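A.,

Following up on our hallway conversation. C-alpha cells first:
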C-alpha cells in the first residue's frame, strides 16, 4: 500500500473506494462536475491544497481533463501534482455500457498502472530543500525529437504517449509540463530514438 502525504483528488465515489485499497492517506472526490458549482467544496479544496497539497488523478477522457484543469486553476498549480492513467479502451464491470469515449475510468484501470502513475507523479516532487539539477525539456527538444511540428509528429507523439502510459489528449504545453515533471531529458532523448 502506498502512503500519500498529499491529499488525493479523484472524480467520484467509485474511484475513491478503489483507491482506498491502494493508498493510505486523504482521498477526496470532485463528485464529477459538482466541483465547478459547489462553493463549499471549492473552499475545502483550496484549504487542503494549501495545507498539504493535492495529487489530481482523473479519468483520461475529456471530462476528466476538464475537471483537472478547473481544480488546478482553482487551487493554484503550485499546490498540485498531476498523476495520469493511460487511456485504455473498455468499460467498468458495474456499467452496462462504456463511457462516451469508450475509455476505462480510474476505477477500471489495473492497480499496477494506477500505482505507477502515482509513483511517477510523486517522484517528480522535489524533497524539501532539494535542488533540481536536471536539464529541462523544451519545445525545441520536442521538435528535434520529431514529436511536435514535423511530418508525422502527431503519430510519433501518440506512440510516445502510449509507450509512456500517458493519456493521448495532452496539449503541447501540458505535454511539456508532464514530460518535465516525470522524466529526465536523457531518458526522453533515448525514448525518441525508438520512435
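Then the amino acids I'd put at each of the 195 positions:
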Amino acid at each position: 500500500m502506498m502512503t500519500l502525504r498529499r491529499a488525493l483528488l479523484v472524480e467520484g465515489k467509485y474511484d475513491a473506494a478503489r483507491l482506498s485499497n491502494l493508498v493510505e492517506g486523504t482521498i477526496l472526490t470532485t463528485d464529477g462536475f459538482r466541483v465547478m458549482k459547489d462553493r463549499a467544496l471549492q473552499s475545502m479544496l483550496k484549504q487542503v491544497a494549501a495545507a498539504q497539497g493535492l495529487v489530481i488523478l482523473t479519468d483520461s477522457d475529456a471530462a476528466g481533463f476538464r475537471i483537472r484543469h478547473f481544480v488546478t486553476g482553482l487551487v493554484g498549480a503550485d499546490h498540485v501534482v498531476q498523476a495520469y492513467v493511460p487511456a485504455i479502451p473498455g468499460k467498468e464491470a458495474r456499467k452496462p455500457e462504456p463511457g462516451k469515449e469508450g475509455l476505462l475510468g480510474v476505477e477500471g484501470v489495473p492497480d499496477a498502472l494506477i500505482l505507477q502513475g502515482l509513483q511517477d507523479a510523486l517522484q517528480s516532487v522535489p524533497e524539501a530543500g532539494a535542488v533540481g539539477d536536471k536539464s529541462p525539456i523544451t519545445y525545441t527538444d520536442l521538435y528535434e525529437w520529431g514529436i511536435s511540428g514535423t511530418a508525422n509528429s502527431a503519430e510519433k507523439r501518440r506512440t510516445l504517449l502510449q509507450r509512456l502510459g500517458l493519456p493521448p489528449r495532452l496539449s503541447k504545453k501540458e505535454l511539456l509540463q508532464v514530460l518535465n515533471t516525470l522524466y529526465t531529458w536523457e531518458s526522453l532523448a533515448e525514448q525518441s530514438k525508438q520512435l
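The chain is about 45% helix and 10% strand. Curious whether your intuition agrees with the design.

B.
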